[in-house]
Amino acid sequence: MKNKNEIQFPLGMKIDFEALGTNVGVEIVVSDKDQIVLAEKNFKDIISLYAEFENIFSRFDSKSELSELNSRIGKFNLASLHMRKIASLSLIYNEKTEGRYDPRILNDLEKFGYAEDFKTGVRKKGESLDSTLESCCKGLKHDLKIKEDSVFFGCRMDFSGIAKGYITDQIVEFLDNHGWKNFLIDSGGD
According to the model, what pLDDT value does residue 132 have? Predict the structure, then answer.
């Protein structure tokens, strides 16, 4: 007869928290008590990783790396490895989508009323979508450049279109590197 208090494996362990302006959930399937301890430690590490990425990519935090770079338009500035990778991916996706993906959309987002963090629940009514988009007419390569450990912004950027996917990929890599085979990551959405 099985003890009712005995843990049955495999067991799904889950953590839910707020990050990136949305609800995030991570679930890991564990197969023994040692893995429970490791999963609990890894959950703490994952929360820290999301916070680190938010400090890099949030356009709603005036102290984020993105906000700092957006305040230094027109010159090369030191940038983190993650920022340089996102800038590089942005150039690739911009080319692959024939310009449909364009991180220069920040002025347009703010113009249409997306100037506030979704966490506040307040969205100012902006102009209609019928207005002309301000995104730069020149190719993205003119306004976004990468040189060694620096990036150049010719105008303000918003990488949220791909940052959440990139961040999720980084969490997958973290879990893979810690030996996890069965897990689920929900990085939420707007």
Answer: 46
